[in-house]
Amino acid sequence: MTGLVLEGGAFRGLFTAGVLDALLDMNLDMKYIVGVSAGITNGYSYVSRQRGRNLEVMEKFINHKRYVGYRNLLKCKSIMDMDFVFDEIPNEHCPFDYETFDKFDGKVLAGSVNVNTGEVEYFDKKHIENQNTILRATCSIPLLFQFVEIKNQFYADGGLIDAIPIKKSVFDGNNKNIIVLTRNEGYRKHESKVSKFVYKLYRKRYPKLAEALKNRHIQYNNQLDYCKELENKNEAIIIRPTIEMNIGRFERDKNKLKEIYNNGYNETIKIREKLIKFID
């Protein structure tokens, strides 16, 4: 079986939205989807077959004060008003098709980090509910979001530990994978000042999470190398941006975000025949 692996990346995820809309236009119905953070939030709309929904949400709400903004940190303790983003928008403003999602006859997995164990846990579609707690958890970046409680455990952004969950897909039996990345070719992650600060902040209360964060850049670069190894063996197709991803994590420029979406769409359409042959 062929897996679809979705990297996170906050608003860089508009690239992934474009890729997934292209797959829908090509009627490529993947039966295994795994992702973290923005990757899997986009992936949910692919599973519900709602072409253009992720782009619509961005265009309608990117400048809404409750969607993203530092004022929300004071009111909601998160840079996004999570109730607005994961409750009001999908249930009132841009309705999510829960019925079609529920009928999906494949596997869709959202990864989130258990802050006590420092391990990524994957939640399948049976965990979905109208509050979208799983999606809240997989997007909860430390410092910018509160940790999310699920069954008396607290969870954070899955991309902290398993940003490109390719090994999960391979472990689950997929001998071929389509991997959607949100960084340009040649990108390598380096230890940042923020990572060092977060490590110091959490090392006493959440030592396993802190240790994992300390080595995050090493883990990420190893994942990139593994993706390349699979690609060289014709066991993976990597789709990545071909325009410069010179945007902030929470970019507000609609034109830049639309350009990124279009790049994802167009790059996928370009390799249509290659994708079809690879999946078949």
Short description:
This protein is α/β, with parallel strands linked by helices and 280 residues long. It has helices spanning 14-25, 37-47, 53-61, 71-76, 82-93, 98-103, 133-138, 166-171, 193-202, 207-214, 216-232, 254-270, 272-279; strands at 2-6, 32-36, 107-114, 119-123, 148-150, 153-157, 176-180, 236-239. A hairpin with a 2-residue loop joins strand 5 (148-150) and strand 6 (153-157).
Describe what this molecule looks like in 3D.
This is Patatin family protein. GO terms for molecular function: hydrolase activity. The chain is of the alpha/beta class and 280 residues long. It has one domain. It is built from 13 helices and eight strands. Strands 1, 2, 3, 4, 5, 6, 7 and 8 form an eight-stranded mixed β-sheet that branches. Helix 9 packs antiparallel against helix 10. The radius of gyration is 18 Å and the shape is globular. The model has no long low-confidence stretch (mean pLDDT 94).
Helix content: 40-55%
What is the domain tally?
1
Beta-strand percentage?
Answer: 5-15%
Spans where pLDDT lies below 50 across 5 or more residues: none
How large is the count of helical segments?
A: 13
**Oligomeric composition of the shown chains:** single chain
Please count the beta strands (DSSP E, at least 2 residues each): 8
Largest sheet: 8 strands, mixed
Quote the distance from N terminus to C terminus.
Answer: 9 Å
Following the backbone from N to C, one meets helices and strands in this order, namely EHEHHHHHEEHEEHEHHHEHH
* Cα-based radius of gyration, to the nearest Å: 18 Å
3D shape: globular
Q: What structural class results from the helix and strand content?
A: alpha/beta
Mean pLDDT: 94
